[in-house]
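Narrative summary of target 7.
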Amino acid sequence: MAFTAALTVKLGAGGKQDVAIGAGAAEAARDQMTLNIDATKMSKGEAMELVDKIRDAIFAADWPIN
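Modeled conformation, tokenized:
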């Protein structure tokens, strides 16, 4: 059985400990992931900071994430 996870972080979050990990939605293919960004009020640099926090949270989490 495939596992899924949703990782959520808000602008201004302190670090990987502020990334919420929850149940994700199944993708059409098992070898992909989707990143949704609402960049209405953030710069590209701010978006990349959030991606880095999610990356750090993935490294720190047990695998598979559940």
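The chain has one domain: 6-60.
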